Amino acid sequence: MRIVMIGSGYVGLVSGACLADFGHHVTCVDKSVAKIDALEAGEVPIFEPGLDMIIEQNRKAGRLHFSKELARSVAEADVVFIAVGTPSRRGDGHADLTYVYAAAREIAAAVSGFTVVVTKSTVPVGTGDEIERIFREEFPEQEIAVVSNPEFLREGAAITDFKRPDRIVIGTEDARATQIMREVYRPLYLNEAPLYFCERRTSELIKYAANAFLAMKITFINEIADLCEQIGADVQKVAKGIGMDKRIGDKFLHAGPGYGGSCFPKDTLALVKTAQDFGSPVRLIETTVSINDNRKRAMGRKVIAACDGSVRAKKIAILGLTFKPNTDDMRDAPSITIVQALLDGGASVHVYDPEGMDAARGVLGPVTYGKNPYDIAAGADAIVLVTEWDEFRALDFNRLKELMQNPVLVDLRNIYPTDEVTRHGFRYFAVGKRN
Ligand code: UDX
Question: Between vectors from CA 416 to CA 410 and to CA 417, what angle results, nearest 5°?
Answer without folding.
Answer: 115
